[in-house]
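note to self — DONT lose this again. spent like an hour looking for the file last time. sequence + predicted structure for the chain T wanted, 207 res
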Amino acid sequence: MPRIKVARKSTAIDMTAMCDVAFLLLTFFILTATARQPEPLPVDTPASTVKFKLPDVDIATLTVGQEKVFFGVPGQPIRVRTLELMGEKYQITFTDEEKMRFSLMESFGVPIGNLKQIIMLKGDERNAEGLQPGIPTDSVGDRPSELHNWILSARYATKELNNVDMRVSIKGDSGEEYPSIKKVLNILQDQNINKFSLITSLRASEN
């Protein structure tokens, strides 16, 4: 009995539609991605085996290194409101342009009297090494330090806009001397902030 021959079908697949989808996804991710901003105070964080991702909102970051302290809080509305509260406290008026430019700054480290000059600089100029001397951490008489007021104002702004309590993280250089860290801890404790996160770099776990 003769064998029936099965007609062979072409195995070629039209990939045009797949390529279109791939390029659409690639374009989407490129346009929606957020570029990592250069840090004005780069620090070498201590290593740790703990894996815990910090939230992207409602948490302030205190960067400590080279005996300087920088402050940053995510969210443009929070930054603007924090700046407004600090302007009221120190009787400094910020223009709408200055508020907008400040809202794009992830962190800063200057006395508030010099903040306007830093705000109006370009990003690469603003982050030049040694330009920002750090936020003052020492109180003057019975007046709290500027860092104290920045943290307090950011807490008020977070509560006012998002109705949540702002959390705090500390990103310290592994070679930083203890007195600089102690000043920051004392300021936090003055506001009854006794719980905070420490930002570290990941290392391999020891067997």
